[in-house]
Automatic annotation (TrEMBL):
GO terms for cellular component: signal recognition particle. It comes from Pseudarthrobacter sulfonivorans. It comes from the Bacteria. GO terms for molecular function: 7S RNA binding; GTP binding; GTPase activity. This is Signal recognition particle protein.
Amino acid sequence: MFNSLSDRLTATFKNLRGKGRLTEADVDATVREIRRALLDADVAVPVVREFTARVRERALGAEVSGALNPSQQIVKIVNEELVEILGGETRRIRLAKTGPTIIMLAGLQGAGKTTLAGKLAKWLKAQGHSPLLVACDLQRPNAVTQLQVVGQRAGVPVFAPHPGATSELEHPAGDPVAVARAGVEEARQKLHDVVIVDTAGRLGVDAEMMEQASEIRRAIVPNEVLFVIDAMIGQDAVNTAVAFDEGVNFTGIVLSKLDGDARGGAALSVASVTGKPVMFASTGEGVDDFELFHPDRMASRILD
Ligand code: GDP
């Protein structure tokens, strides 16, 4: 991901090498190239506009520093702006002070939530936590089984509804809100310190799904709501993210399928438009293909 954006930006900055001082025309030409590179990487138009305006303003206003030549100075500005868009500092999971830390996953169907649930569970377990996975995706016929398979791979137990159960205590089938509540209760009783709640998605944003996700959020009051987004979806990413942010007010973003040939624009757009930090990156189908997201490292990789 970002390879083409990275190549384009590097080439742009190369043109500035050897220049003693940048004229306004130099800055404008550079900003124009940055704009084209971002648009070609699928970054949303308003995000590109804001980003380039900031880079231009800072580049024109920058003091000529003895330590940096003009090209290095622009690279530094672009780097800082990229880090800012991606969430600034590396953002770690906020753990609950008492009782289990509740992490809810939200996103479209196919975004990679269930896969992520397993990755996150395994990662947290390796850090000494004792997670419980809760299967609240009762929409897709195989979702519960899929979470059970993922849980097995991660070596983490799964709380799932019992088909045909009627009372809330018996893991009620068919009611994701009740399952979420019962799952959190189970974690409390069995002393799990983290609960990861997988929820249902649809192929597109849908009022009923959003209402359900929002109801689950109100019922379990999670410490983190992670919005999982497929980095491959390009320009649609912004509308989807805004809809989910309105619906569930997520606290962090997980970019999935970063191993694909996505151009990376979705990542920058979603973080910028919602102002929420990117927290994790999912980079494959395996349970270990997962990493904490470091905005500074990603920015450096783009500008490498
Ligand atoms: P959900 O509907 O949001 O729960 O999505 P799933 O977790 O079922 O993932 C949908 C598909 O994407 C599955 O075939 C996963 O194996 C695949 N998938 C999930 N995450 C990744 C990833 O990071 N990289 C790749 N290449 N595939 C992924």
